[in-house]
Structures are given as C-alpha cells and as structure tokens.
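Mods, move this if it's the wrong board.
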Amino acid sequence: MFLPFAPKIYRHPAIVALALTALTIGQAGDAAARSNWAIDPARTRISFSIDAVGYPKTEGEFHQFDGRISVDFDHPGQSRVSFHVEAQSIDVGSASFSDYLRSAAFLNAARFKEIVFTSTAVEKIDEHEIRVTGDLTMLGVTMPLTVDVAVSRQTGQSRARLGFTAHAKIDRLAFGMNSGFPVISRDVDLLVASEAIEQ
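Not the wrong board. Structure tokens:
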C-alpha cells in the first residue's frame, strides 16, 4: 500500500502542497506583487488513504515535512510551490505496520528519504480555487501530478496567512510500488490541509 503524502486527515507527494494561493487573488491594494510564504507545521496535516480487498480502508499521515510558496498575486501563473516530506515519518497508528510501509516493499525510506513535489504551473480556476501541476518524486521516480487546491486568505493578524486544502489521487504503480497489487489498490487518495505564513 503506499502512502505518499499523508496526514491523518490527510497528509503534501506531498505535496503538497500547494501553490495555492497564489491566488486568492490579488485584491487591489496588495503592496507587493510577489511574496514568500512558509508552511506552518502546527497547522498542517498530510494524510492518505488506500483500499485493500477484504480489509478496511487504511488511513495514515506523515509527521515531518517542509513547504515553501512564492506567490505572484498579479500573475498567478508565475507562482511556485515546493514540498518535501520525510518518508520515515509515515504513521498508520501501528508501529509494526508503519515499519512495514517504510521497508523496501513500499516507501523504501532508508534509501529514498524524501518525497518531493515541485510545481511547474499554477492556474487560477476562480477566486477560491487553483490547479497546481508539478513533478512528484518518490522512490527515485518522477511523475507529473495535478492537484486541485481550495484557498482562503486571512489578513488583519500579526502576519498574513493563506489557508488551503489540496486533494490528489496518486497511482503508486507508476512509481514502481507494486507490492500487494491487485489486492491492495493502485490508487492512493492524498489530502493536504495547511496554512502558510507570510515571510
């Protein structure tokens, strides 16, 4: 089973997450067109779920990650996102099962320590949603991934915040993670819920 980004709500390929923002989108009055944001770990969850025949759905999350976002409010397409997830931090609520997922059968975390998502394009769908396309690297394999992201912008605090929720479906077989297939589904549902703080 595989679990690429995963919060317990969901955990990011993390991801991943994402560029979001960029968009809420430029309300007149924004002083600078481009700004940099960092993921707030205390307000971020990267989770995943996967199905297996004859077993209940498995859900898990990743506890260690880092994300950076560069937002251009005037030109959302020039915004950028990067997300790094520590494969060893996967947690499915069972120490032995989590260790199994870290093994060479799945994440091979001893050899491939990070799961990385880097955006290549950001598209504004409307005032509250964007679509982020990028490259997800896992198990030494890089594949394209498109993530739909709901975004909200909060101001009036000591530091501005961007809230976002990103959903994606990952084909683990595309990364060479074949263990358990077809009993264990090839698709992994990924969910990233986070806030980013303006730097």
